[in-house]
What we know:
- It catalyses: tRNA(Met) + L-methionine + ATP = L-methionyl-tRNA(Met) + AMP + diphosphate.
- By secondary structure, the protein is of the alpha+beta class.
- Helices cover 38% and strands 15% of the residues.
- Strand 36 and strand 37 form a beta hairpin.
Amino acid sequence: MEAKPQEPQTPAPSPAQEGQEGGPLGKHYNPKDVEAGKYEEWMRAGYFHADPNSPKPKYTIVIPPPNVTGTLHLGHALFATLQDILVRWKRMSGFEALWVPGTDHAGIATQVVVEKKLARQGISRHQLGREAFLKEVWKWKEESGSRICEQLKMMGASLDWDRLVFTLDETRSRAVAEAFVRMFNEKLIYRAKRLVNWSCALQSAISDIEVDKKDLKNDPEKPLPRPFEVPGYDHPVYFGEIEDFVYPIEGGGELRVSTTRLETMLGDTAIAVHPSDARYKSLHGKFARHPFFPDRRLPIVADAVVEMGFGTGAVKITPAHDQTDFEIGQRHHLPSINVFTDDGHIVDFFATTPDQRAAAPAAQFVGMKRYDARLALREALTALGLYRGRQPHEMILNLCSRSKDIIEPMMKPQWFVDMKDMAKAAADAVRTGEVEIVPPEFKDVWYQWLDPASLRKEGQAVEGEVRDWCISRQLWWGHRIPAYFMTRRGEPLPPDASSDPERWAVARDRDEAMRIATARLGCPAAEIELAQDEDVLDTWFSSGLFPFSVFGWPEQTADLNAFFPTAALETGHDILFFWVARMVMMSLKLMGRVPFKQVLLHALVRDKTGKKMSKSSGNVIDPAEVINGRTLEDIKAHIRESHLDPREEARALAAVDKDYPRGICVGDNPADPTAPGSGIDGLRFALAAYAAAARNINLDADRVYGYRMFCGKIFGAANFILKYIPPEGFRRLSPAELKAALPEMGPMERWIMSRLQAATRAVIGGFEKFDMASSATAIYNLFWDELCDHYLESVKPHLREMTRVAAQPASPERDAALARYHRILSLFLHVLDQGLRLAHPIIPFLTEHLYQRLPRLPGDTPSIVIAAFPVADPALEDAALEARTQRAFDMLHALNAMRSATGLGRNQMADFFIESSDPAAIANGEEFKEALMGQSRAQSLHGYMHLKGLVDPERELGSLYKRMEDTVVYLASVLRKTIVRNYGTKVPEAVRRQNKEKIDGKLEELCAMLHSICNFEKLRLAAASTAPCPPDVTVADLAVAALQERLWTAINEEPERPKVPKGTPPPPPTPTVADYDFEGFLWRTAAEQIAARVPGYTPRQRAAQGEQPGEASGKAGKKDKAAKKEKAEQKAAAAAASPAAAPKAEADPFSQLDLRVGRVLSVERHPQADTLYVEQIDLGEGAPRQVVSGLARVVPQEQLQGAAVVVLCNLKPAKLKGVESNGMVLAAVPHDADPHASAVLELLQPPADAAPGTRLHCGGEAPAAPKQVAIGVWQKAQPEVSTDPQCTLTYKGVPVLAGPHGPVRVATIVAAKIA
C-alpha cells in the first residue's frame, strides 16, 4: 500500500510576494481576521471617489436613503449587497462608477423616536415648543444618526462618502422649496379640504405606505371579533363584526342599517340603498330621523355603489369619515359632519350653541374616546329599542405602521399634488422604453398605479383612478411647507379661512411671500401679517427629488452635468409607486428627462418559512447576528430587552426555540475556533444567491452559514496552492504566455481554462440582467466543483512531484520537469486570480485578502478593487473537450461509488478496470487516466475493480442486506401514505410531490444496493477462482423505471368499493391496496432481480421476519400484522379454555364518562374570544373548577349566574385560547327562572336532591320524551353531531340519539333543540 505523501510546509515569502500584505494564511478561514482593516484601506486610497472630469464612461446610482433613525436590517443588507455588486463590477470594467450615499430625515419615525426619548424624561414636545424640540431632534441626529452609515461601511458598501447627503440639509431644503414653488406656480400643487389617512395617536395625516392593511378572516382558531391593542386604551378593542340598528322613518316605519363603525353614526347625514333593491324602492326620497339629533333629517338616497348583499342592503352615510361615503355625499350634495377631534375623541357638537347641550341626546357622548363611544352608543340604542344585534364580519382593518393606531379617515385642509398628467407621463416613460423595469412583470404594477385606464382597455380587471397626492403632514420635524397665510392686521376671518387657497402665498422665503401678499391684498407690507404653514411636507416629496438634488440642484453643478441622469435605480418592489414613480414624475416635470434608465427591483426578505419578519413573531434576523453568530441564550436575552408585550414576548421566545434551537450561525465544528458567524462575505454571497427575480426571499440562516463554508473552500484552495510556490526560481507566467503554452499542456489544464471562460460569460451575463443568483451560481460552481473538487485534486500529484524534483541536483531533465510543473502552477494561479476578480463584487473582503497574497504580474493593480474585470476569450473555449471531461468525471464518480460501496478506506489502493464495447469510452479513460488515478486513489486503471483479497464479501453482504431491509421498511411506510382515497385531489400538491421525491429517491438507493449485492454475490461465488471477476451488473441494469412501473401498477390495483344504500349496515371490509404487503413485494422483487443476474444465487432470509425473499408473504398489511393476529387468537382461546374465566358484559362506553351536577359561581367573557365564557363552577370539591365553555352563543351571561350545569369532568386539563380549562360544560339551564329549569337534570336521571358534585347516571334508557336544552361544546371535542337529517348523535362510535322520533338511549350529551 502506497504511503500518503508528506504535505510540504509553508515556505517563506518568495521575492514575487515581497512588499505585499504577506504572511501565511493560517490553518482556518476566520472571517474577522480576513475582513479586518480592508474597508479603511480602501477609503484611505480613495477607490470609491468618482471624478466628474474623468474621460471614462459614467455609471451612477443613488442609494435608497435609509431612515436616519434606522439600524441595519436584512432589507438594508440586501440592497447594500446588490447595489455594491453593480458598482464594483462597473468600476472594475472601466467605468467612472459613483454610488451616492444619503440618509432620509424620516419625518414621522424620527419625531416618534425623539418624543419617546423625551417622554422617558417626563417631557412632551408641546411643553418644549417647536424650536426647542427641533434642537433636540438635531442633537439626537448628530449623536445617533450616523449609525446606519457605519453599518453600511461594515457591509463593504463602496459608497462615495465624500458626497454624503441628508434630505434635510441646507442644499436639499433649498431644492424642496424650489420644487414646491415651481409646481405650485404651474398649478400642480393646490390646497383643499379632503379625506386623508389620519392617525389619532400621531395627530397627523400619513401616507398610504405607512398604512398596514390587516385582513380579518373568520378563522376557527381566531374567531371574529378579534381584540386589538389601540394606543390610548387600557382595554382591548374588538374588530371584525357588523352591527345593525334602525332609523325611524318620518311618517312611520323604520329602516334597518348595517355598519362596522357604529361610532361614526353621530356624523350620519343620509341612508343609501341600491336603486334596484326592490325591498327599499318605496322609501326612495323619504327621510329618517337621527335618534340623537332630533332636528337632523336623513334623506334615503339611491346609489348604485351600494352592495345589496352587504348587511341589510341599507347603509348609513358618513361623508366626513369614509371615502365611499364622501363620494356618495358629493353626488347627492350631502353635508359632511366631523365626529372626532384630532386625538380621537367625540367633538363638541354644541361648541357654538352651548344652550342646546343640556337637552340634546348627543351631549352624553361628547368628549368620549371614539371606541368608548361605540360601546356607549350600543347601550343607548338598545335602551331606545333601536339596536338589532351584531355578528362576526370579515373586513380589512387599516393600522398606522408607526403607532399601531387604527386609521381614521378625516376631512382636513391639506396640500395636494395633481397627479393626473404627471402620472401619465411616468407611465409613458416605461411604455416607450425610456425607463426599463426589471423584472418586467412589475410593469403592470406600474401601470396599475399610474395609468389604470390603460389596463382596463387591455381587458384587465383594475379598479380606481389615479388619486392626488396629499403632501402635508401635521409634524414638526421635516421640510416646513413654503406657504404663508396672509391677512390684513385686524381683519375678521371666517372659521374656515385656512381652506381658502387665495389666502396663501407660496414662496421660497418670507421676503418673496411678502411681495406676493402686498400685490394680492393691495396694501403695504406694514399692514400685512404672514404666518408660515405649521405643517411639514411628506418625506416622499424630498425623496422624489433625490436623484438630482444629491448633485446640488437647483444649481447647475459639475456633478449634475456629469452624473445625471443616473444609470439605474435599485430598490425593493414594495416602494415602486411610493418612491420610484414619484422620482420619475418629478424628474420629468423639473428636469425634463427621466432620472434613470433602469429600475432594478429586488425581492423582500422574509423568514425561512415565508413569514414577514416582525419583533413580535420572534423571527427578525439582525445581520450582525448572522455575521458574528449568536447563541440561543443571547437571542432570547435580546428579545427580553425589547420591551415587547408579555404575550408577544412569549410568542417570540417560542418561535426562536423552534427556528434556532442551536442559535444563529454558530457552526457545528468544535475543533474550529473561528466557527461562529457567517462573516460579511458569507452573508453577502447568500443574499446574492437568494436574489432571483422573485417577490420574496425566504432566508434560512443555516444556508447562510453554508456560504461561509464556501468562502472557506476558496480560502483553503488558495492556502494550499500558496504552500507550493517555491521561495526562489519561480516566475508566474502572464496570460499571453499561458495561452501560448496551453496546447502543450494536459487535458485538465485545457478544461479548466475553458470552464473559466464559461464562468466569466455567465457571471457577466447575470450582472447585466440583474440576475445576481445566476452569477453567484456560476462563481460557486467554478470554485467549488471545478477548481477545488476536480482541478485541484488533479494537480496535487504534479505539485507533490514538483516538490520532490526540486530537491534533486540541477540537471537539464530536472529543469525541464520543473518548467512543466511551474506552468501548471502558473495556470492554477491564473485561474484563481481570475476567479477572485469574478467573485470580488459579491465577496470583496476575502477576494482582496487573497489577491494581496498572490504572486504579482507586471502591471497588476495594488488592490483588486480597481483590477480589470475578466473578459471571456472564445479561443480558449472547447466544448468537445468539456464533453469528454464530463464523461471522465462520470467514470470517476462510478469508481468512487465502488470504493464507497465496498468500504475501501481512502488510503487503500486497488486496481480498477474499465470495460466497454465503445472504443471512445476506452480512449476517454486513457486520455484522463492521470486525473482519474489521482482523484480515485487507484494504483492502476484498466477496466473494472479487482477486490479479491481486499474485502470480505460475507461481511459486506450482511451489511448491504440490513441496509436494504431498512430501506424497504421506510419505502413501504411512505407508500402507504399515497394510497388514501382521493389522494390526488385532497392531498396538497407540494406534499404529493415530496412523497414522490422520497419514493423515487429510495428506489434509486435500492437499485444501488442491488447493484452492489449482485457484484458481491458474484465475488463470493467466485472466491475459489484466481481470475478477477468482472462485475457485469451495473446500476443501469437495475433501472429505477422498471421497479417504479411494477410498484405503481400494484398500487393502482385497488378494487372498486360497492356503494352501500343509506341506512343499511356496511358490508364486511374487502382487502384493498391499504392492506398490500409492500415490504414483501419489494423484497421479492429484489430477490428476483439478483437471481436473474447471479447464477447459483441462493435467496437470503429477511432480517426482520425470517422470510425467504423469494417467498410470498400474503396480504397481511403491515409486516407483523399476521403474527399479531395469530398471537391474539391464541390468547383468546387460552382465556376461553380457562375454568376461572368468567364472562364479561360488553363495556358501555358511557360508563367511562364522569358527569356531575355543578352550580355556576361566576361567569365572564373570554379575554380573547367573544363567543366563549370562562366559568367558575362549584362541583363540591372545595375550590371551584374553572371551565371554558361555548355557551356564549346560546345563553345570556346574566342567566348563567347561579345556573345548574352538567360538567364532563374527566377531560385532560387544557388551554383554550390561552385560558386554563379543567372540564367541559355540556348543558345548562337557569335553575329557577325558566320553564325548562330541570330539563337537564331530569333527562340525566339525577337524584331528586342532586347537590353540586353529584355523579350522574350514564347508561340505560332515558325518558322517552325529548327535551330542549342549550349546550356548549368545544369545536374540536368529542362527541360530534353529524349533519345527517336523521340527527344521529354518537359517542365513540356508539349511537346516543336516533331521531328525530326514536328513543334516546343515553342522554349524557344532548343536541340543542332536540324536537
